[in-house]
Amino acid sequence: MQDVLLIGKRAPIGPEAVKRMVDALSPEQYEIIPVDEGPIEAVVIRKNLLKLVPQEKILPIVLEEGLKITTEATVIKAQINVVVIVKRQIDL
Amino acid sequence: MFVIKTVAEVMNKEVITVTSCISVATAVNIMKEFRVSGLPVVENERLIGIITSRDLRDAHPNRLVADAMTHDVIVVRPGSSLWEARDLLEKNRIERLVVVDDNAVVGMITESAVYAELGRYIDPMTELPKADCLYQKGVELLREYQDIAVIFIDIDNFGLIDKEYGHVVGDNVLKQLAKILKDNIPNAGYLCRYGGDEFALIMPATNDEAKESAKLLVNKIAKTVIADNIRISASAGVAGGRRNFNKRTHGQEINTIKNLVNLASLASTRAKHHGCSVVVADSVQLIQAY
Questions:
Q1: Contact flag A20-B20 (C-beta cutoff 8 Å)
Q2: Residue A13 contacts B where some CB pair is shorter than 8 Å
Q3: Cβ contact B67–A16 (<8 Å)
Q4: Cβ neighbours of residue B23 under 8 Å, at least 6 residues apart?
């Protein structure tokens, strides 16, 4: 599994199958979000990512980029790199 | 007690069901093997969906049934009337209904089975329901705590039309009369061809309201010129009454409806003999279970 799976409406594996698979392999680590956006039926996303970026922020970005390449028959594995830059000021 | 068969009497009781974790390809094979076009999906003896040939059209064969099935299943109870089943099929534009008792699948009923059975209760010439349907409608109205009235309409001297113009013209007259009645009955009225040249209408109404409707119908018939320039007239009898709540009479409603039809029929004969268009029978007590 990657960070994100985009499941096409006519893909060989559907959201329910993915749910059962990830529940067996990595219980409670992924969130399955049903969507109805063009050819995409559902987005499976790693819960840790949602701790860093809320769903309402990350989902539109994933869909915007995903819709450019996803077809009804495909399952797209996507990697999301969240870069957190921490700056701290210290007294020398 | 139902005059018309219930869903339970017509449904297929040997239902092939599947679980949601088999593949679409397997579901297709099961459908082919058993020559069915829909499979209820059951988990822990509870209905969770249905997979039909329509669902399979767009689904990848590797998918789980859980990912291809229809989740919102339109169901019907075994005790429902075939009318209810037909209404559900037509309203939802589907071809089959899963019959469910306490969320457990007990049968399936198809559109063709429903129409074939209901067709037995339709008069082929006028396309109106037969008397049995009127009785059942009456029972339903009584059970809905409605005041009901029956209008019985009889064509005057119909035998003469057959003798003078022939039976083909006579049949045409009946067809056109049925259309006139259909087009002019009150919204909540239920019309049937009772037999021969007799039509009956049942409606949730008081005697007075039914009398007014009967007058309108008889006048409409008298004003209309029917095939081959034939003018006809009709007489109507009306019978209705008040409900009488009585627990012991549960299941006897059909006799009340038959009694009302009989009274209305006798009233129409009196109307014919006395040369008046509409006669109202004495008010009767309608039995009503609670």
A1: no
A2: yes
A3: yes
A4: B61, B62, B63, B64, B65
Beta bridge partners of A7: A42, A75
CA dist B129 and B135 (Å) reads 11
| Farthest-apart Cα atoms in chain A, separation | 61
A–B interface: beta-carbon pairs under 8 A: 31
B60, B65, B70, best to mutate vs chain A, most A CBs in 10 Å: B60
Q: Do residues B282 and B237 make contact, with C-beta atoms less than 8 angstroms apart?
A: no
Indicate the residue of B60, B62, B66 with minimum beta-carbon distance to A16: B66
Q: What pLDDT digit, counting tens, does each position of B142-199 carry?
A: 877 778 899 999 998 888 888 888 888 889 889 999 999 999 998 888 999 998 899 9
What is the dihedral sign for C-alpha B80, B94, B128, B144? positive
- Amino acid present at B226: I
**To the nearest whole number, what is the mean pLDDT of chain B?**
86
Angle at A26 between CA A25 and CA A27, to 5 degrees: 110
**What phi and psi, each to the nearest 5 degrees, are found at residue B266?**
-65, -35
> How far is it, in rounded angstroms, from Cα B192 to Cα B122?
9
Total-model pTM:
0.66
Contact B67 A12 (CB under 8 A): no
- For A23-58, the pLDDT digits (tens) are 888 888 899 999 988 999 999 999 999 999 999 999
Q: Which two tokens stand for residue B225?
A: 């010129």
Q: How far apart are CA B123 and CA B88, in angstroms?
A: 23
Q: Is residue A52 within 8 Å of A82, Cβ to Cβ?
A: yes
Contact across the interface for A14 and B66, Cβ inside 8 Å = yes
Q: Which residues of A touch B59 (CB under 8 A)?
A: 10
Contacts of B67 in chain A (CB under 8 A): 13-17
Helix (H) or strand (E) holding B137: helix B131-143
**Which residues, at least 6 apart from B147, have a Cβ–Cβ distance to it below 8 Å?**
B204, B205, B206, B240, B241, B242, B243, B286
Interface test with B, best of A16, A18, A21, A41 (most B CBs within 10 A): A16
Select the residue of B59, B61, B67 nearest A15 (Cβ to Cβ).
B67
In this structure, are residues A14 and B64 in contact, taking their beta carbons and an 8 Å threshold?
yes
